[in-house]
Design a protein that fits this description.
Pfam families: Bac_transf. This is Sugar transferase. Helices cover about 55% and strands about 10% of the residues. It has nine helices and four strands, in the order αββααβααβαααα. Helix 1 packs antiparallel against helix 2. It is globular, with a radius of gyration of 16 Å.
């Protein structure tokens, strides 16, 4: 079974199975704060083509509070329900829609916003963007407490660009070079193990 067919089968089955959970999450978000259920943001996809990623909204829908594209520690923009969704990673489940649409894969390098992609070295950018971005990858597992790490920095933006991002790109290159269906299954299993342990 090819990677795309695997993505289609699993994402379709997961959406059918999880729709009651999606409905509960949507209800909780709407009761907790004003705004849409989904948060949409432009990310860079395969071959550099931009797309709008789906996430369950975890922050207040206030244009005055927008701006920073990384989340640091106890960000005041995060809602009560949003804090739970982020801690459990349930906000990321909405990306099953992106997998079904074909802009993402279940496993692959996490998609970045355009301004961070512009800082990728050219050979690295070409390699990382040669595959569909994923809901999970090794970097997602290793940096699952990224916001806590950045909260300890005097300059979170600089720490992300100079320390975290290069390491994520290293993991992404490794994935592209050695990706197989077996690799994807192992990363999915490891991701589920981490989520359940939380």
């Amino acid at each position: 079974m090819g990677k795309r067919w695997f993505d289609l089968v699993v994402s379709t089955a997961a959406l059918l199975l999880l729709w009651p959970l999606f409905a509960l999450i949507a209800l909780a978000i709407r009761l907790d704060s004003r705004g849409p259920v989904f948060f949409r943001q432009e990310r860079v996809g395969r071959f550099g083509v931009p797309f709008r990623i789906h996430k369950f909204r975890t922050m207040v829908d206030d244009p005055a509070l927008r701006g920073r594209e990384i989340t640091v520690g106890n960000d005041p923009r995060i809602t009560r329900v949003g804090a739970v969704l982020r801690r459990t990673k349930l906000d990321e489940l909405a990306q099953l829609i992106d997998v079904l649409q074909g802009t993402m894969s279940l496993v692959g390098p996490r998609p970045e916003v355009p301004r961070y992609v512009q800082q990728y070295p050219a050979p690295v950018r070409d390699k990382v963007l040669s595959v569909r971005p994923g809901i999970t990858d090794l970097a997602s597992i290793e940096y699952r407490r990224e916001s806590e790490l950045l909260a300890r920095s005097a300059d979170p933006e600089r720490t992300y660009v100079q320390e975290v991002l290069p390491r994520k790109l290293h993991y992404a290159q490794q994935y592209v070079e050695h990706a197989t269906l077996w690799t994807d299954l192992r990363l999915l299993a490891r991701t589920l193990q981490v989520l359940l342990s939380r």
